[in-house]
């Protein structure tokens, strides 16, 4: 986490982890479902796509359009994958959080 430009927000972090979990099936709808399943968080597709824009601008993801699919009314999917820079940033963020959480005891129920 070298500078503010590369800082990962909490939602960006969750989206990147969802992309990694979904592998080749990572696109807006599947990421939305993954976030609901994993962390019980309802998010709009607009929030996901605007996060894609930020992550792509930072170099943390790459996106591409799938082939046009008849079952989607002739529309393509915007498939995304995490770049090597995105992997590095996830690891740096995890390391930072591990340091911050070290020796913290949460004893409130």
TrEMBL record:
* Top-rank taxon, per record: Bacteria
**Pfam family of the protein (one):** PadR
Give all residue intervals belonging to the Transcription regulator PadR N-terminal domain.
Answer: 16-90
The protein in question is named PadR family transcriptional regulator
